[in-house]
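Kindly inspect both lines:
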Amino acid sequence: MASQLVENLKEKYGVEIYYHKASEESYVAFEIMNFTDGYYNEIVVSTIKQLDTMLCYFSKVLVLRLDLRLKSYSANNKVMSQFSSCMLQKIKKIYGKVAYIWVREKAKASQQHYHIAYFLNGHKIAYPSKLIDLLKVIWERVSGGGSLSAIKNCFYQLSTNQEDFYETFKEVLYRLSYLAKCYSKRRVSQSVKNYSSSRLEYNEGC
């Protein structure tokens, strides 16, 4: 059964059925947010693959969603590249393997903002408070005073051994589908991406 938060989000954004290609012969149906302007399929695909790949490596995966804001506009993603490079070094040193996906958006504000989701080894991290504090310090430094904040109910602990795993997995994907919306993703130029993700590949046992 979906949480009250997700039920509220479904009332706000609606539901669209997304068919994910699991193999050459089969598809899996997931619920994603139904946006008036549509969604970027490649962002949904990357999100599912990176999360699913982490679940192939670890029976427990912590999913964390954060928002990152800047003090002024930038026509490139240099600040995000610097942040990603620094945070990956820190996270891998403390928690080991990590996957992520981030998107660049610009709506009514003069500057762009970013949404990011991390997928971490749930055997090494159960609650993300210390990690969030660390990432806040890194983001504030590389962005020159920008802010990093956690969304409401910002993390999930996925465990493949739990009976409600699949229901929780579907809930996570519904919430992460927010990153895929077309609205507010304005392409600055062909060389400036509006999203990026890690490139973890499945291990031989998956």
Summary: Residues 175 and 205 are 28 Å apart (CA to CA). The first strand starts at residue 16 and ends at 21. The first helix runs from residue 4 to 13. The helical segments are 4-13, 41-57, 78-95, 129-143, 165-176.
